[in-house]
Design a protein that fits this description.
- The structure is a single chain.
- By secondary structure, the protein is α/β, with parallel strands linked by helices.
- Helices cover 33% and strands 24% of the residues.
Length: 208
């Protein structure tokens, strides 16, 4: 079963976060916290690529106009902002429309990552920003977890992600996102896991 079929099945059979490919509730909360700390814009037009049910950008959507795109209609029905059913590889959108483009935990499921980055660049205004995070290929923990998974997500090192985004964008911010199994461990040891070999995700922000 491919990723598209897997997501569509989970959208039909599960509800809320359980239908999304997050490790657990804490991993969702940590990624949302990092996203909110980086994307502090207000009154902007924002495109959320692979938005799913939109829960991770709910806070951002309260102070911005967010449009989400996803190929799973069951997810889009749950979103609290405007959505489009479509393909992130070929965005049905005009050039130079958006102030910010988000790719939150999307790129590990994308085959032609350059194409999606190019599409993000196309629909962004000059001076607009793109934010992408992806599973960290250098992470020892995720490497062990993937040994036991049938469907294996793609991953990138921070250097590889910077190269991917840097083809089209000026890199303005980047780093590691540490994710632990629960909130207590996250609070106690989060900073210790914010390094190349222990951080679960890497992220990059670029400017057009």
């Amino acid at each position: 079963m491919g990723w598209k079929e897997s997501f569509k099945r989970d959208a039909r059979e599960k509800q809320g976060l359980k239908a999304l490919k997050y490790f657990n509730r804490n991993s969702f909360d940590v990624r949302k916290k990092y996203l909110n700390s980086i994307i502090k814009d207000k009154n902007k037009l924002i495109l959320d690529l692979g938005c799913g049910s939109g829960e991770i950008v709910e806070d951002i959507s309260e102070v911005n106009k967010v449009i989400g795109i996803d190929f799973v209609p069951e997810f889009l029905k749950k979103a609290r902002f405007d959505t489009i059913e479509g393909d992130v590889n070929n965005l049905p959108l005009k050039n130079n429309m958006f102030d910010v483009v988000l790719g939150v935990n999307l790129f590990q499921y994308i085959n032609d990552k350059n194409k999606v980055v190019d599409e993000g660049y196309r629909v962004l205004k000059n001076g607009g920003k793109i934010y992408i995070n992806i599973l960290n290929r250098s992470c020892i923990i995720s490497s062990l977890i993937l040994l036991f998974k049938k469907e294996k997500e793609d991953r990138k090192t921070l250097k590889e992600l910077k190269e991917l985004v840097g083809r089209k964008f000026k890199i303005v911010k980047y780093g590691y996102i540490p994710i632990l199994p629960n909130k207590t461990l996250q609070t106690l040891f989060g900073l210790l896991f914010k390094n190349k070999f222990l951080a679960y995700d890497v992220y990059v922000t670029g400017e057009k």
